Structure formats: structure tokens, C-alpha cells
Amino acid sequence: MEKHDKTDYWNWLPASFALAGIIVFIFATFGPPASSSGFVSLLKGILQSVVPGYVGTKAHYQMLPGPDSWVFAFVLGMAIGGFIAGRTLGIPVRDVPEIWERRFGPSRIKRYAATFIGGFLILFASRMAGGCTLGLFISGSTQLAVSGLYFGVLIFAVAMLTARLVYGNTGKEGAE
Amino acid sequence: MTKILLGLFSGIAFGFVIQRIGATSADKMARAHLMMESDIPKFMLTAVILSAVGLYGLQVAGVGRTLILPTSLLATGLAAVIFGIGWGLCGYCPGTAWAAVGEGRIDAVFAFLGGLAGAAVFAHFHEYLVPVIYDPTNFGRLTLVDGIPARPVALLILVVVFTGSVWAIDRLWGHRDVVR
Description:
Number of strands of chain B: 0
Number of helices of chain B: 9
Oligomer: heterodimer
Radius of gyration of chain A: 19 Å
Structural class of chain B: mainly alpha
Shape of chain A: globular
Number of strands of chain A: 0
Strand content of chain A: under 5%
Mean pLDDT of chain A: 93
């Protein structure tokens, strides 16, 4: 296992202040931030041009704005922010994460199939609950919402359990 | 137009910060879930603590807008379980997927495409699913203030519980510099 003594990632505490500053700014200038709704806005934009009649008949597309909205600008901004941050940090990105490769080998097909399924599940679930890690857990808990706290406790617990099942003891090798 | 620019600006700042803490790395996220690295969970919980205090300040000043999502015992809980399985499997959540796609991670592109499919499927069946799984156990837009009528006390409880969680994670999880 290759060892990196230190990474160039930020320390968690100043980063928390930075993120909280942004979140409070968003509450002041818009309202609760969200990101899974951005997927619906994008879909709404695509479907409106492909099957215009369909969008008008579906409640889920009626309750959320299309791409000409704050939420879509926000998620697009997140992609731009990720791009800028990635380019300026200088840690090369991997298409197959290290820990995944150690468990399942270097197959891209296997990894991409898994992330497609994972992505399907998180967005299906987010739309069922009305929000995701950001839109429901972080935004909700910030507003002292019971829904956000309830969702947050369960997603952490289930994700930790799932990761144990997915990775087995892979992570432990070279850890100590 | 101002709304769009505000959204874009907020998004760029948000995406930048979550990349810098490593939340867009599925490797770091998996390590967080496996209790090997504590940065991401401590970051998330501390950001909530500080945001909650900041939002309270906004509310005292009469600035900003809030929107509480309802709690449906069945739908919110079931969704959280499905979400947790997906998150543990792929290491991305909807927000980090956007930023990770921007960062150029191809596995995140597939998570993103899967996400579009998942959202489309739920949107298609919204009319059938919501009355069955969401509405019957919907307790409405509950907050801690419904149980603890004094908002500062409710906030204090959140801060104490979350700070305790950060402390516990710091003690129980591994640290990145030891691990890699």
C-alpha cells in the first residue's frame, strides 16, 4: 500500500466554517439549499423539449422549477466549483477509487455499473423523501427540522453498514 | 437574473469547499463510512452546528427564508434506508456527484446518469407512490421547536448533541494522517 503522510485537503474545522458561511449566505439570499432537486430541474428541461406534454401531467415536475432557476444554477455552480477546486489542488482523480480497486479489481465496467446503481438509489430515495444529504439532512437540521434529523441518522447508519458489506475487510489492510 | 447569479455563485463556492475537504472523493467517503477517516463526517456535522447558529441569527434579524420539509415516518425512513444503501455502495451523494462530475471523475458521471434515471423513475410514479407511502404517516412540518417551544433551547440541544457526535466520531474513527 502506498503511503501518503499528508494530503493537501483542507482541515475539517476551517472547512466547516467556510461551508457554514456559504449555507447561511444561501439562507439569507435564497432559502434552504438543495441539490437533488437540481436533477429534477435538469430532467424537466430535457423532457420539456423531447416530450412537452408529459411534464405538464406529472406532479413531481410541476412542484419543482426547470433549468431557469436558482437551484439549477446552484448545482451547475457546484460542478464548476468542483472543476476549479480539482484543477487547482493537483491531486489526480481516479475513475476507480483505490479502496474499490483493492476489493473488486481495476475493472471500470464493474465500478461504473455500481455507481450507476448507487446513483439511481440515492436519487430515487431523495425524491421520495423530498431531499438528500444537503436538501434534507443539512438544510433540515439547520432549521431544526425533525425530517432532516431522522433522515440523517438513518442514512449514516445504513451507509456505514452497507460499506462494511461492500468492502468487507479491504479497508483494514495497511490501515494499522 | 439576480437569482441565477446568486445560485451560480453559491454553487461554485459550495462545490469548491466540498472538493477541498475530499467529499467528492469516493475513496475518502468509503473510508468515512468504514470509520477509518473522520474528516467528512466531522465536517458535515460541524457545518450543521455553525449553520444552525447562523440561521438563528438571521431569524432574529428577520432575514432569509426557511422551508421545513414534512416528516413521513414511513416514506422518510424508507427513503433514508434506500439512500444509505446507494451512498454506501457508490460513495457519492447527489450534491457531491455534481462536484465530482465537474472534477472529471468518470465513475461520478455514471452515478450522475443513474441519478437522473432514479429521479425520472420516482417522478413517473410520484402519483402512485406518494398517497401510499408518504401521506398516511405524514406528521407534517415538525421541528424541534414543536417539542421544545423555546427556540434558543431547541437550538442549544441540537448544538450539544451534534458537538457530542463530532467528539465521539473524533474518538472512534481513524485519522487520515495515520491512515494515508
